[in-house]
Amino acid sequence: MHIPDGILPPTVAIGGYAITGGMTWYSLRKISRSHNPSEQIPKASLLTAGFFVASLIHIPIPPSSIHLVLNGLVGVVLGYFAFPAILIGLFFQAVMFQHGGLSSLGVNAAMMGIPAILAYHLFQLHHSFPQGERWANAFAFLAGGGALGLAALIFTVLVVTTIPAEVNAELERRAIYIGLAGYSVQAVIEGTFTMLLVSFFRRVKPELLSDAIDN
User: What is the DSSP string of 12-33?
Assistant: First the structure.
């Protein structure tokens, strides 16, 4: 899902940096207003490392393979810490493993970070329903799968609308649409993984989730 260097026109890349700059400022502003934000830094660091490593673990699903993105899980657990955490994770993925690129870093961060923030707010909706495992699990699944699905949709729109003139546009579009169908399967996997992990946190360490609610 990482958009590499050279794919997007300069105006889109600059626009991505503008959006990411604004979202980073807004997230840091929300974090600074939360109760004792420094206490959440170790948790944010751990989730940033998990987000960074997830892209290196490929799961074979013929005829290709996938890797977890985890932007929904990061959003559910970290709240507004999620956006800077994803930005940092993407930066190191681009520098160390060439997953994505530095010119497209702003677009990639916005593409994965904004759905993470939306996933956080979506998961919070479970408090509006009767307390219990069922609703929390349902919203965790929707948050995890929905964040990946939204990021994949943004990726598809960006790439389809900016295909370079020198390539076979029809063939590229067909490949991208097939990829989008594959992401729908991955969204179910991400949703299930997020649901299982949130259920585990609620049973053994519920404060990991309640901290995010305070943001």
Answer: HHHHHHHHHHHHHHHHHHHHHT
